[in-house]
Amino acid sequence: MILCFLHGFLKIRDRSRKNHELHHNVWEVYRAKTAEEFRSRMKAFQTWFESQTWTASVREMAAKLWKRTEEYVVAYDHPGCRRTSNAVDRPMNRMHRLLYAGRGLHGHQANSQRRLRGWALLPNFRPFAKRSGKVREHQSPAHRLSGKRYCESWLDNLQVSASLMGRRQPSPAIR
Question: Where does the pLDDT of residue 167 fall: very low under 50, low under 70, confident under 90, or very high at 90 and above?
């Protein structure tokens, strides 16, 4: 399991909102390219931190951060792995809001499944944001993954891709 560095940073940031120098120094540790560089940056951060005056709660969270150095270093043993859970946290936050707004999974199971499936499909087919002056190679995450774009309209592409290419599955009662 890879420990998320972002959560360590957030705990420090929440206790020292206006100290941007502290925030910058924590992220400088994160930007290390190798495990050895990470360890040396963490040690330099610790030395810098201990030379400053901090509240007890900030000191506690920073100490927790550098005590976990070896747990964070595990990520460097897995090239290409993510060292923060941000890529998972953001979609899960959106799903949590969807479930809360729909009062959880109340009602029929089939309706809940359709709502969640629809929610999961939308981010994959919605077009990427336009970049100023640049033409994007792919229209959406689904287009980037499959390389297929059936129409100019992202909604038509969603419909074609989600339609099982015109084939229908037998209903559960018929099986």
Answer: low
CA distance 106 to 100: 10
Mean pLDDT of all residues belonging to the chain: 85
Name beta bridge partners: 117.
Answer: none
Picking from 23, 19, 20, the residue whose alpha carbon sits closest to that of residue 8 is: 23
| ∠ Cα 89 123 111 (to 5°) | 95
Please give the Cα distance from 147 to 13 (Å, whole number): 41
Q: Maximum Cα–Cα distance for the chain, whole Å?
A: 73
Per DSSP, what are the bridge partners of residue 123? none
Q: How far apart are CA 175 and CA 156, in angstroms?
A: 30
Distance in angstroms (rounded) separating the CA atoms of residues 66 and 72: 9
Helix (H, G, I), strand (E, B) or coil at 134: strand
* Distance of alpha carbon 160 from alpha carbon 175, whole angstroms: 25
Give the domain ranges of the chain: 5-77, 86-166
Question: Which H, E and C letters describe 68-115, residue by residue?
Answer: CHHHHHHHHHCCCCCCCCHHHHHHHHHHHHHHHHCCCCCCCHHHHHHH
pLDDT number for residue 87: 76
Q: Which residue has the tokens 């120094």?
A: 25
